Amino acid sequence: MRAPNELDADAGDKPTFLYRVLDKALPRLRRYLPYNRFCDNLYHRLLFLKKHGRLPSQRPLWNDMWFRVKTSREILEPLRVQVSDKELVKDYVRKTVGDQYNVPTLAVLRSRHEVDDFEFPANCCIKPTHASAQVILRTEGAPLDRERIKSWFAINYYRHGRESNYRTLQPKVIVEPLIFGSTNVDDFKVFCWRGVPRFVQQDFDRHTNHTRKIFDTAWNEQDFSIIYPRSNAPAPKPATLDEMLAVARALSAPFSFIRIDLYSDGHQVLVGEITNCSANAGGFFLPRTAEFRASQLMFSP
Fold it and tell me: Is residue 131 a contact partner of residue 166, using CB atoms and an 8 Å limit?
């Protein structure tokens, strides 16, 4: 690695003209470039430039390593494609660590017609299995926008962001109970390198005032955050930390760089998702210079 002061200091310092050009060009490139590996990777390279103010390199840096996963043949490995599907990932969890770590499935709806006919529980989580960033948390029988749910079947998430692991996923809607009966549960993301957990990210108030903390696996808080501000909230070491790390270690074993998303109420551990490319290789650090230190800790032997 280069010395810390040789890192490109801050994506916020990128030339305004370049940022504006990329901001206008990228939506058009995403839409009109041919859908193939070469054009996908060209798009990802320009997206990286926009987000970080520099091109991706071969250095073992946090976002550069995510970029490498996203743009290599690795992202098309069958297991990475499987765990991208919110229904099929549960098969992998079941076979690897046991079904007790899965959030129960109430229904998988495979057509718009099934959405019309299904009696959604008064309290439940509804989301597409083939996309990200779409979710409905229903409480106390609140009115449902069934048209919104049916619109998810038209989502082609590969075309949305050119992430190749989503390309062959079939559109479905999964219905689950609210995790631990709440809409605001403790959310932990374990970053693993070659089957070894290295960092744990805890998120707070995801749907209101999103903040987070980053810890090493001994629960020492780090002096940086990623994307969202560093939280001031107290964060005692979870009673289930050892179990969470064991689950993450087992699930991450077949992969290089991977993120295992977990929930815990202090008694039980559940797997939320397995994330192939955290923040789409756009996870800028706060402060920006912390990426070098985090990368050293993440990828050191």
Answer: yes
CB-CB neighbours of 143 under 10 Å? 6
Q: Which is it for the CA torsion 156, 253, 55, 188, positive or negative?
A: positive
For 265-283, the pLDDT digits (tens) are: 999 999 999 999 999 999 9
User: Is the pLDDT at 65 greater than 70, yes or no?
Assistant: yes
Task: Give the residue carrying structure tokens 């129960």.
Answer: 104
Delineate the domains of the chain, giving CATH numbers in brackets.
Answer: 4-57 (no CATH), 78-83+183-299 (3.30.470), 105-176 (no CATH)
- Tell me, what DSSP letter sits at residue 5? G
To the question of pTM greater than 0.85 for the whole model, the response is yes
β-sheet bridge partners, residue 125: 137, 176
Which run of H or of E encompasses 262? Answer: strand 257-264
**Rounded to 5 degrees, what angle do the CA atoms 119, 120, 124 make?**
160
Tens-digit pLDDT profile for residues 76-126: 999 999 999 999 999 999 999 999 999 999 999 999 999 999 999 999 999
Q: How many CB atoms lie within 10 A of CB 47?
A: 22
Is there a contact between 263 and 270 (Cβ–Cβ < 8 Å)?
yes
